[in-house]
Amino acid sequence: MSFAVKENKTLNEKYYFKKHKSGLSVYVFPKKHSNTFALIGTKYGSIDTTFKTDRDSDFLTIPDGVAHFLEHKLFEDEHGNDAFQRYAKYGGNANAFTSFVRTAYLFSCTNNFEDNLEVLLDFVTHPFFSEESIKKEQGIIGEEIRMYQDNPGWRVFFNKLGAMYVNNTVRKDIAGTVESISQITPDILYKTYNTFYNLNNMALCVCGDVTAEQVESVCDKALEPSEEITIERIFPEEPERINQERVTLELEVAQPIFNIGIKDVPVSSPEESIKRAAVYEILLQLLFGKSSDFYNRHYESGLINNKFAVSFAHDRNFAHIEISGSCDNPDDVKKAVCEEIALRKNVFFTKEEFDRAKRVVYANNIYNFDSTEVIATGFLSFVFSGNDMLEYPSIVSSVSYEESKERLMSSFDINKCVISIVFPKKTQ
Questions:
Q1: Nearest 10 degrees: CA dihedral of 80, 83, 84, 87?
Q2: pTM tops 0.85, yes or no
Q3: Spatial separation of the C-alpha atoms in residues 394 and 275, rounded to whole Å
Q4: Can you say how many angstroms the Cα of residue 283 is from the centroid of all Cα atoms in its chain?
Q5: For the segment 268-308, what is each residue's pLDDT rounded down to a tens digit?
Q6: How confident is the model over 200-248, as pLDDT tens digits?
Q7: CA Rg, the chain, in Å?
Q8: Which residues belong to the active site?
Q9: Residue 294 to residues 57, 118, 285, 329, 330, Cα–Cα distance (Å)
Q10: CB under 8 Å to 77, separation ≥6 — which residues?
Q11: Of 281, 267, 275, 286, nearest to 391 (Cα)?
Q12: Which 3 state secondary structure label does DSSP give 167?
């Protein structure tokens, strides 16, 4: 089967898609850039701790931190060789990441694309886990976990999630705990790997000055067919209420840092996911963007600074608004945020203000198509949520004034607003 082509003539962008004979979904986004960026990802992240396939009789619950542990372990083969050394031979700059809902392995290069891609596909599809190598990795990741305990940005973020969510596994540290990773065995890793690293549960996204045929030829060489399986996941029931309104901590920071979260209802379909993302992006631009009345007023008063940032986070079973920054009086920022939402529910923005914010959001999303890294990484997120990155700008354009107003009224519940603060340590 040849590649299908999806084109957006308005954006002057296109990509090639094919379900490879191995089961892997392959997306190639041609760009005449000097560097090429590629990543392969699996729909498996830290929140996926209870699961089964259609070949299993019972669900398996694994320790927290397995997804992140697997990400680390895949780089090493049975001879102790490191994939980074293999990349170095071809000039590839490699990395990987684990999030709540996905794990991805990536590289960028200016030369030797096929060689680098072969390294990527090879080590991701050839796992090796032994008692000895796991024990060694438990020590390494244990140190990483302890290090993050002293990381103010990490702690303020997860404390916010713990304040918003009662049972949802999104409240747990992606790396797990020293205790939870001590329970990891080769059997657990192989079972988890064979479930989620089935190529039918994965996607490859390549963006750069390459052809679809180049990518296919490496896939043909490096990949064996995977038998398709169905994966079921179980998540704990999550009440609508928040867990606690405020959580604080003292660490080595020069100024208090904060994360504000407003809990929302998870999306129920790919269509709702992409539409809500567009509506929220416009609303957050209107409410708290750099050109908003809120931002300029409170920036001038000194309540907030240029570290103030807002976003909407959502995926399979969670959704919330995130507001972060640093200032002397974080509680006053939360109060101001809630007051602004209450005010705008009563007196919504004008049609002109809405249209201006929508143009800003549209332009920002067009700008994303200038980076091979942003395209490939963003593309994977859209693919795994059942959507298409090329369609998102037109979804933004389609958002109406009335539906934005209605969404602000029905969501943005200030009674579900929490704040996490890290204060400077008190001097003795």
A1: 140
A2: yes
A3: 10
A4: 21
A5: 899 999 999 999 999 999 999 999 999 999 999 999 999 99
A6: 999 999 999 999 999 999 999 999 999 999 999 999 999 999 999 999 9
A7: 23
A8: 71
A9: 55, 50, 10, 16, 15
A10: 83, 123, 126, 128
A11: 275
A12: coil
